[in-house]
Amino acid sequence: MDQAAGLRNWASTDRSGVSSSASDDIAPRGQTTPAHTLIVIGLPGNAPDAATRVTELLDHWQGQGHRWIGSPLHWRVVPLDLESPHLATLARHQSRWALWVDADAEAFRRAFSVLRRLHERHGPRRLIAVHSPHLPRRGLLENLRQAAASCLGIELLVLAR
Asked: Using one digit for the tens of pLDDT, what is the confidence trace for 43-54?
């Protein structure tokens, strides 16, 4: 491999160690590759289905007037297991993180447990709460936001009304 090929290979790799050519598998041919990476923790189920749920939520928020989202197709949703050995490194290099919050009776316990483990493992300190679009701000989401801030020093952005 010549030096120029080596530099091209290095430039096509983002700081998380994921080659940008891997994002070509996510974007259909003829469309631009995603411009933003959103790392999501706490997702239930298999990763492709769970990532689709987050993309659908981004689409919903964009439709609600959150212009910062732009096109949901410009987001690469990356589910990450909380036990990943790369968590602390990714927390230093990736700026967009999300916490999946379910709407069942055990949702607060599970979400707070994930946040507590993130805190212990030197994970990100700012996350956006991703959840069912029908989940109201009052109750579960607001309680989780307050507990994350006061107990763990984690800022949890809640977009629900």
From this structure: 876 656 878 888
